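# nightly structure sweep
# worker-07 picked up a monomer target from the shared queue
# config: single-sequence mode, recycle default, output format = structure tokens
# input follows
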Amino acid sequence: MMSSVFKKLRVLTLSHIGMLLFVVLAVVGTVKFFGKSGQWRLVKIQVVGKDWSSVPSTVYSGFRPPYWLAESVKQDDVELSVGGTKIAQTVDVERYSRGGPDYDVYLTVRVNAIFNAKTKKYVYKGRAIEIGAPIDLRLTHTLVFGQVIDDNVPPQGYETAHVNVTVRYRNADPWIIDNVKPGDIMMGNPTGRVVAEVLSVTTEAPRGQLLFTDAEKLNRLSASGSLFIERDPKLHDLIVQTKLFVEKHDGEWFFGGHQEVKVGNFLWLYFPHVNLKSVEVESVENPGTNEKFK
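# output follows
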């Protein structure tokens, strides 16, 4: 029997030996690559409505996911490898309405990534984990496309705080005013986290809207410099004092994912009976000390 084996080996050509070596090296390389033990990394992604990785960046704007996709992603959803091993898990889900069928959705996810010693980057499913990079997750019920916005979330989470923020809704109609009540709350995720609460509601006479100067009215032939202001008696400025849940990123405080909380900025607030879009921030205070928030 052994003699027959040796006879077969003697008839092997160099090409046969080369093919055998190639197969052996390929198997060893595959085992070495896929046998690497991954490291769990905590990343934050902004979900988009479609796979934009091959789309020019100029077209990216407006890819918010629809409500049915936003509502299907849950905390503790997982992605499994082809072998059934868990390779990703959602730790936190943030979901903010934009006043229509689209949502802003942010996920904090643990992913099992492999460190590439040459590029000094962690890789997940063949793609580097870096800020701005596309990422896709086949979660329990949903195929999610997203963009990495933080490639190294602090294990203890971000610094957070509750702040009192006074906002002004200019020239509000009566039905807007009637539907904002103290105690109204805004939810930020499916588990019921409250991110905004109405503390008080007041109104003021509106400052009016500039229509034209008398120079425009008289075709600039003669003018006294007077201004013509329109005031609708049915409209009022709505002043709402709120308590907001905010996160600190790079020294700045943000609400609702990406809305920076600063005097003069505009916020979108979504309460049970009314959406307050583009309300202007007038003051920001720390509710614990009643001092200006920094």
